UniProtKB/TrEMBL annotation:
One of its GO terms (molecular function) is FMN binding. It is an enzyme of class 4 (lyase). This is Chorismate synthase. Reduced FMN (FMNH(2)).
Length: 362
């Protein structure tokens, strides 16, 4: 299977299946000299982890990173960085039934038609278990972006089903299992998810990601536009059905006089564009949002077909995850960070000698 790599100067290749012995990635192109050690991967992996809270999946993985190469005495050497995480909670069971059935909303039917063979254990390669390695790879990117450019990439849930935050505080985001910026609403969210779980159904979610400190100039027109690469990277996350840059689809109802971000000596007057103009960062915050679809594996039976085309019924047994979007904030941050680091290296390679033409807008 091809297309397991992305990026141009910073390339990330992931490998592994949901229920295989391990998952891993190779990060190639990271400059030498970045101090990194295995323990630094834990915080972001725990933020993404299954079993982090009772509102998400029950799978409990240790998610311990082994650095196999590319780091010597705690410093990157410029050679490929290989990271490995062993799957420790991939319970073996009988997959004969699942292997013959296409779960609605999953990649079973399409993988089967494309490859003629599939690993049915937990969704195999199509499982969101793969996104663990994106989060791991992005620990490197986040650190490099922070150290070299003072950039901070962070995200939060901005809608859970029909609920939206009534207040906003970044400090609240990491204090609750929903990555929710309104602490006063957390109890309401808990009740909402508990009721949803009891009903056996699921809902979608929206996540906003902001990268602060990105300098003007990153992004390569025409086919390597920063917004285009962010959209592709974010859309590659499991269950993502929509990506917006800046105001995104809200722009349809805006006037030009409102949407264009005027330039003044005191700075841009607004940031409807999401910090990207002509595919190049403007120096404003880079803002992107994603929408994740409702969990497909739910307790409510769904109609499907088996590999012989015979009608069958699919129902998820045990505990289901009523909203997969709850855990996707670190994954969205990861994709934004990896795209930004790749673009930073590409900008340095082609335009590193170009000095500032005018003073930067504050
Ligand atoms: C963090 C995360 C966890 C997920 N966990 C589940 C899950 O427990 N059950 C499920 O039905 N889908 C889950 N998904 C979504 C499926 O992986 C995805 O819908 C499926 O592979 C089909 O791909 P597509 O929705 O991108 O077309 C998860 C997605 C993410 C981002």
């Amino acid at each position: 299977m091809s297309s397991n790599s992305f990026g141009k100067l910073l390339t990330v290749t992931t490998f592994g299946e949901s229920h295989g012995p391990a998952i891993g990635c190779v990060v190639d192109g990271c400059p030498p000299g970045l101090a990194i050690e295995a323990s630094e991967f834990a915080p972001d992996l725990q933020r993404r982890a299954t079993g982090k809270s009772r509102y998400t999946s029950q799978r409990r993985e240790a998610d311990e990173v082994e650095i196999l190469s590319g780091v010597y005495e705690g410093v990157t050497t410029g050679t490929p960085i290989a990271l490995l995480i062993r799957n420790t909670d991939a319970r073996s069971k009988d997959y004969a039934e699942i292997a013959r059935t296409f779960r609605p909303g999953h990649a079973d039917y399409t993988y089967w038609h494309k490859y003629g063979v599939r690993d049915p254990r937990g969704g195999g390669r199509s499982s969101a278990r793969e996104t663990t390695m994106r989060v791991a790879a992005a620990v490197i990117a986040k650190k490099w972006l922070a150290e070299h450019h003072g950039i901070r990439v962070r995200g939060h849930l901005s809608a859970l089903g029909e609920l939206t935050p009534r207040a906003f505080d970044w400090d609240a985001v990491e204090d609750n299992p929903f990555f929710w910026p309104d602490a006063a609403m957390v109890a309401e969210l808990e009740q909402y998810i508990t009721a949803l779980r009891k009903s056996g159904d699921s809902v979608g979610a929206r996540i906003d990601v902001v990268a602060e400190g990105v300098p003007p100039g990153w992004g390569e027109p025409i086919y390597g536009k920063l917004d285009a690469e962010l959209a592709a990277a974010l859309m590659s996350i499991n269950a993502v059905k929509g990506v917006e840059i800046g105001d995104g689809f809200a722009a349809v109802a805006q006037k030009g006089s409102e949407h264009r971000d005027e330039l003044t000596a005191d700075g841009f007057t607004s940031n409807h564009a999401g910090g990207i103009l002509g595919g190049i960062s403007s120096g404003q915050d880079v803002r992107a949002s994603i929408v994740l679809k409702p969990t497909s594996s739910i307790l409510i039976p769904g109609r499907s077909l088996d590999v012989d085309g015979e009608p069958t019924e699919v129902v998820t047994k045990g505990r289901h995850d009523p909203c997969v979007g709850i855990r996707a904030t670190p994954i969205a941050e990861a994709m934004v960070a990896l795209v930004l680091m790749d673009q930073a290296l590409r900008h340095r390679a082609q335009c590193g000698d170009v000095g500032a033409m005018t003073p930067r807008i504050a």
